[in-house]
Amino acid sequence: MIENMQTKDSLRMYNSLVQKCFTDCVDSFRRKNLDSTEEWCVTKCCEKFLKHSARVSVRFAELNAGAEAMMQQQVMQQQKGDE
Q1: How far apart are CA 24 and CA 22, in angstroms?
Q2: CB 21 within 8 A of CB 46
Q3: Do 45 and 20 touch, CB atoms closer than 8 A?
């Protein structure tokens, strides 16, 4: 179940990356290959997108760890109250 969600999320992220960078960077369909400006733009767009995604993942992990610590603290306080 979780693996399917992770796969879907990865595909969604990849599709968003492709769509955004293609739309922002590719200007012409007259050539088979990207010109140097388009290629540079796609590279920078991908780097920026991946750095942003990594930062969001780190922040999410930080928030998740904080929530987990808070829950553990509440459980410990509840256990002390039961004694």
Answers
A1: 6
A2: yes
A3: yes
